[in-house]
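Narrative of activities, Objective 1.

The group set out to show that a structural description can be obtained from nothing but a protein's sequence at a throughput compatible with the screening campaign. Below is one input-output pair from the validation batch, recorded exactly as produced.
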Amino acid sequence: MKKMMTFVGMAVAIGLLVAVPVKAHHSFAAAFDETKPINITGTVTKVELVNPHSWVWMDVKGEDGVVSNWGLEGGPPVNLFRNGVTKTTLPVGSEIKIFGYQAKSGENKAVAVFFEYPDGRKIFMGGSAPGADGKGAPGVPQ
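Output recorded for this entry:
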């Protein structure tokens, strides 16, 4: 009887694990468009160093003078930490330039390859975008 209860308990546990949906992790190509590079300048409004992707949010003034908030996806926090990015090195209010690729959805989101400080220093975002690891990034001498 004890073996039967153990078997039933294991079967129920396995059934629950299989039945729980797993959120799929998207690839670069699924969410972003490599044919729509962006190069925008704005003011940092929020920095989220969270797994699985870090986000930098910034206000960007369009040619028409309208300000819109953009979300720029980067790699996991550990990738940014390795590149020297913390909330203190990229404080709210900082002006930065971002190079990346726009979301296929057309919303104000993109995956960032790197951001650039006003003094010209470039920090790679370590995410899924081509060149985000600093190798072969467009616009960056190798």
